[in-house]
Amino acid sequence: MAIRILHTGDLHIGNFPGPEENGENVRFKDICKCLDALVAGAKEQKPDIAVIAGDIFHQARVWSDRGLKEQQTAVRFLRELERICPVVVMRGTPNHDSEEQFEMLVTAFYGDDSVSVVTEPEVLHIHTYHGQRVDVACIPGFDRGVHRAAHPGLSREEETQVFTDELAKVVLGLKAQCEPGVTSILSTHFTVPGCNMESGQTALFAQFEPVIYPDTLKAADFDLVALGHIHRPQQLPEAGRAVFYCG
Q: pTM for this structure?
């Protein structure tokens, strides 16, 4: 049976430089309208599962009143989506999705089997509301501090190569945890060399940023790779059968 998947990410819920209307940031209001439109589209299309590939929030450190408003917006959005299908929401880069913000999401959805909040690499065994199983492997955004503790004394160039090699092992290790014959999805928040950046340039390599190489994704051979981090929607056919950035 075919599975319909809602793949989104890089919501960046928060304030951006720009005008205000009745004391409220207009860009924030635009984001809320986009979230409402996404939910409306999901109600119409009826996906079997929603995968949100990181960077839910725009800024990790915000004042309490504004931070609470942004958290409430995220929770409301996720609750509306879970009425339609199970939701997997993954933490993005630490400068956008803070540990505290995601602890709040974990608390908000504690005991709720329909919303999975992911902060560490893992494989989730999700059952759709129709009873079909989907294995979702998640690799949240990169926290350089965690990896530096395990590999002290490296230069930035050496770090990048070591961390990129580690990422490849994590990708293949997670695929090994997926059951053969079950639909498998990889959701992650990294640059894949060869992707088209927001500027229109092609990312060939990243000197100081760990990446996941197309050959790694090809070898893992997930049924779908649902990427976040690059804000340009696109398919990467050189990286496998179905490898997409949601934009």
A: 0.90
